[in-house]
Fold DedA family protein.
Amino acid sequence: MPITALVSHPSLPLSLAGEPADGFAGWAAGLVDTMGGPGAGLAIALENLFPPLPSEVILPLTGFAAGQGVIGLASALFWTTLGSVAGAMALYWIGALFGQRRMHALWARLPLVKVSDLERTERWFARHGTKAVFLGRMVPIFRSLVSVPAGVERMPTHVFLALTTLGSLVWNGVLVLAGYWLGERWDLVERYVGVLSKAVLVLVLVALAAFLAVRLKGRGRTAGHARGRAQHRRSS
């Protein structure tokens, strides 16, 4: 039986948001049905380029397909990892083509940030970039975004490829195997990893809000001091 039929069959507890036939699950299942392992790889490559596409749906569903014999487990792991690497390399080259010079020029035009912020980030990436690329492959949202600064900073391609392959194999392996072992309950993976994704997003938004609040407060204090000095000069 095709995986799309298994996903949408009313007797199986596999519905995602009540619309498995039309949602991400149905789309990913269709790719696996049509193309086999390469279809799963294509879905994950697109997920890397467009982070709103959920790997927590695509990967366990691919594992479920392997458990049902639609594709082999080794094929599922190989093609999803290859797709992750392909998507990450595309983002890496986007960052490399954009380059440091354009990044500094763009940064200088942004409000509420300083060139020193970017320089500090670059120094941090120079020291910890390898860990960021490897571990970032296992963190929702950052698994895609981390490829861009690696390209901007021109991390050696062979190092980036090795770290991305290893990190992707770990993340993909855990989610594919979870779907393989859970069988018809593969959607439990999406439920729990989805909570993690939302938690990461909330933390990022809180950190951004705190940064903006500190910068705006500092700007107000600086403007107040400038007005005070101007009034003092006029009065004297």
Remarks:
- Residues 9-21 have pLDDT under 50 and may be disordered.
- The chain has ten helices and no strands.
